[in-house]
Write a structure and sequence with these properties.
The chain is α+β, with helices and mostly antiparallel strands and 424 residues long. The chain is built from 14 helices and 21 strands. An eight-stranded antiparallel sheet has the order 3-13-10-15-9-8-4-5. A three-stranded antiparallel sheet has the order 12-11-14. The protein has a three-stranded antiparallel sheet with strand order 20-16-21. It is globular. Keywords: Iron, Metal-binding.
Amino acid sequence: MSTHVDPPGGHGRPAVPLSAAEALARCVTVEPAKFAADHWGRSPLLSRAAELPSPDGFTDLLSPADADELLSRRGLRTPFLRVAKDGRLVPAARYTGGGGAGAEIGDQVLDEKVLALYADGATLVLQGLHRTWPAIVDFARDLGAALAQPLQVNAYLTPAGSQGFATHYDTHDVFVLQVDGRKHWRIHPPVLADPLERQPWGGRADEVSATAEGRPELDVVLSPGDALYLPRGWLHSAQAQESSSLHLTVGIRALTRYAVVEELLALAAEDARLRASLPFGLDLADPDAIEPELTETVEALRDWLLRADPAAVAGRLRARVWPAARPAPIRPLAQAEALARLNADSEVAVRGGLRWQLTPAADGRVTLRVPDRTLTLPGTCEAALRALLTGEVTRVGDLPGLDDDADRLVLARRLLKEAVLVPA
């Protein structure tokens, strides 16, 4: 099992595996501090394979043979596959159908239809690989720990000479990891800096097209093992070269200050002045009539913001972010077997990548928050909980702060059943 370091502040973040730094090092050729200062959210970064640590590039994450396996033998369904041609998405009905006897589903990917589209120049997009392909599940968890942000991983398979999508921008940062073949990328500066998810490129299609006609900021061909970081908003298009291309796109959904604003406004519903009705008969189309109400509303909002509780805002942000990053998978059958055989000599560890927050409660108990639930436990368990949550492998009989092995086993069983712990 990987060695872990304590999470900052002792709560709120999962124990961070040392492999997280290795995951980031696979994507960038600069030190993390330099990447954060000079590139994160600011400017593209091209990292060539010769300067990156993996001699085999990214084929260990997903090879062309792996992609074929997903498309042919894994019962893939939409939306885990999208197909694009000439800059447009192909309707799913053109490549999906019934799953055969006993399946009782009508949207299973049909390999022969996928073949026809791909052979005709369509790009295949395998979506959500951070949930479906084991090597990428682990890589995404480590990279997410390094960035402290939720992320997703898609794969793009493009036939020789084809381009799946027209010039566009994304509303999230991306790492492009070239797995196989070569792809020509043209990168232009943003037409809208730091776009929010509600500000997609389609609303600025004319600006995007006009900017794409100009000289690109970066005009490069990615070869196997190369990596490219793009901040959100940067325009890009990509075309496969003399052979088919496979690349992974890691999308990082970074939180913004606007997210804080959204949560503040949600909490502002507690303020009676802001809940007050507008005057009877107010002409909403008349700026002069609206002006005094606007002034009063701004003053009420300002007064409320000065009293805003950081803990309440943090709680809402936690509820927004934690569910977006899945912890390490558990094996339900093995977990149940570990529960049945648990004894004082059993070794356990906190589930990798689990978000948690441990706080004392007013009644002498302790509260353990995880993404989808809250556990309340006796205060005598606090020392044992803190020992477990460091991420280190722990023998059940060595848990501190509890009087005897019977109490230690009760706590370990509870946490195994709640999927907070896993057998080491």
